[in-house]
Amino acid sequence: MSCHLPIEHCGQHLWLLPDKALYWPARRALLVADVHIGKAASYRALHQPVPRGTTEATLARLDKLLATYDCQQLIILGDFLHARTGRAPATLARLRAWREQHAGLRMVLVRGNHDRHAGDPPAELDIEVNDEPWLLEPFALQHEPLRHPDHPVMAGHVHPVFVLRGRARQRLRLPCFVLDDKISLLPAFGEFTGGWNVEPAADSRVFVAGAEQVWALGG
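^ that's the sequence the OP posted. Answer follows.
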């Protein structure tokens, strides 16, 4: 497992992880956004030729992170399941088996737009579901990157990526964390999620994830 990047943000010590996740030591919590379990199955239901094995790969990455970091809770900032058509029997069976391997772990989902369409996870997965904002001091944990009147926001939804440009017109598009005193964004965690180019504000801090490391732009 590659090294994390420790940062200070809103009075909290946080670790940015190369595998597009955030670890919060004080809460012993792993935070991910936009997992989109079943997205590939949803596309195949529409007769689109997309790769198989994305759910297995996503869960394997979660397994590795949970084994590496001291986690009491997994917090998902929206879009755990992609769509109702993605709730294929094989996908749900794999999720049940995966959950049994982490029976002592608290799992919390902050509902996102896809969760509202897909429906809450099956009860046997034992995932606590909350509407946004879910307050976990000092943050408002949300899916949508909308300002909260009293708390700095940690959100997903955007699937942020940043384009690095070289002098010879090279372009490298990498997932990124965007940290701001008002609204911060986590990259999409899922295997089959794509990304949206962001142009952060001048006072935002951008950290790109790639090549098994995280580094600060301009740092």
